[in-house]
Design goal:
The complex is a heterodimer of chains A (176) and B (199). Helix content of chain A is 80%, strand content 0%. Chain A has 176 residues and is mostly helical. The longest helix of chain A is centred in the middle third of the chain and has 57 residues. With 199 residues, chain B is mostly helical. Chain B contains ten helices and no strands. The chains are: A mainly alpha (176), B mainly alpha (199).
Chain lengths: 176, 199
């Protein structure tokens, strides 16, 4: 016997797990257990644990196998569906952002057109003057400075970038 | 992305059964061999029968989705217990209530049964209370070693420990549980004292 194991530990464990303990084991093994700290601990612990395991196994009512398998199938399908939808959702979000950016970029141009058209036809003079002023102001502000051609080029470049990003993201995540 | 791409991907989603690593017949066979043991382990590690039910489903789901290959049924069983162990750890980390169920909570009249049944119920209650005082890893070690009858190598695989350390860890866990059980049963704390001192 060393500090943590005893040479007769195997015999004791075999007797305990085989159901021979304590009545059907030799007297010398019982005497050994009575005098050996390691084997006594083993006997104290193993019997109730084995009994508990047997009771739990007997009492346990687990769900039927087909129910567990069916739930796993459903969940696997739901997860696969989510994985499929993930790039689509992302592409939709990117497209919406692109649309927003395009709208903001074109606002000064559209406002200017409305203003010029209104000032020629004059159906509601105040309104068209206001459109023209806003269009001029937005067109001359730093963020979208430049003429209509520059604005168109900027808007198209942004839209193309967003489209390319969404396509690239789709191809990256599609294998998931 | 074209419509046909989307249809193709959705078709793949419908074929999710292929993602499960075994068919229903093979699963049924494995489940019938292992489910009670896994549930017993989960319930004794969490102390909550309802939580054990949930974790049992989760354990088999993760097993079915795993892309691992197994040589034998023993490997499959060890892998299941490993998943179960990790789930219990995750549950503990998320601070979900983990209390150790006593046998008298498990069925009406468990402690009022006469004779042997009453004694057995008392032993079970003592064991549950004593196990509740152990560290989670000690509970796992003892249950796997003596409840499940797992070898040191299997325990090391399940608990992600080194095989060489199992002997010492098991010795310490066993000593602690034995001490707690003797205190509960009123037996002398160290009946072998004289012989131990001699050796």
């Amino acid at each position: 016997m060393n500090g943590i194991e005893c040479e007769r530990e195997g015999d004791v464990l075999e007797a305990l797990t085989g159901g021979d303990w304590p009545d059907r084991v030799e007297a010398d093994l019982r005497a050994h257990v009575a005098g050996c700290a390691i084997c006594a601990d083993l006997a104290t612990v193993v019997r109730p644990l084995r009994a508990e395991q047997a009771c739990v196994r007997q009492e346990t009512v687990v769900p039927p196998a087909h129910v567990v398998y069916w739930r796993a199938q459903l969940r696997a399908r739901a997860e696969a569906q989510r994985t499929v939808n993930h790039p689509l959702t992302f592409a939709h979000a990117v497209a919406m952002v692109g649309l927003g950016v395009l709208g903001v970029s074109l606002t000064p141009v559209v406002m200017g057109w409305f203003g010029r058209w209104g000032s020629e036809t004059r159906p509601l003079p105040g309104l068209w003057d206001w459109f023209a002023r806003v269009g001029d102001w937005l067109g001359s502000s730093g963020a979208t400075g430049g003429g209509p051609l520059t604005l168109w080029a900027l808007a198209l470049a942004i839209a193309a970038c967003l489209l390319l990003v969404s396509v690239a993201v789709y191809f990256v995540v599609v294998d998931d | 992305m074209t419509l046909s791409d989307v249809e193709l991907l959705q078709g793949r989603a419908r074929q999710a059964d292929d993602v499960l690593q075994m068919d229903e017949e093979a699963f049924r066979s494995l489940y019938e061999q292992t489910a009670r043991g896994v549930w017993a382990y989960l319930s004794r590690m969490t102390g909550d029968a309802h939580l054990a039910d949930d974790l049992l489903q989760e354990t088999y789901y993760r097993f079915l989705r795993a892309r691992a290959s197994f040589e034998t049924d023993d490997h499959r069983r060890n892998y299941l217990f490993r998943i179960a162990t990790n789930l219990v750890k995750d549950t503990r980390r998320r601070n979900r209530t983990v209390h150790v169920a006593l046998p008298d909570e498990e069925g009406p009249g468990a402690l009022s049964a006469p004779g042997d049944a009453e004694a057995r119920a008392q032993v079970r209650a003592d064991l549950s209370r004593a196990m509740a005082k152990l560290r989670p890893r000690e509970r796992s070690l003892l249950w796997l070693a003596y409840g499940q009858g797992a070898s040191h190598r299997e325990i090391a695989e399940i608990l992600d420990l080194k095989t060489a350390s199992i002997k010492l860890l098991l010795f310490r866990a066993r000593r602690r549980l034995a001490k707690l059980l003797r205190l509960r049963s009123g037996a002398p704390a160290r009946p072998w004292r004289n012989s131990e001192e001699r050796s």
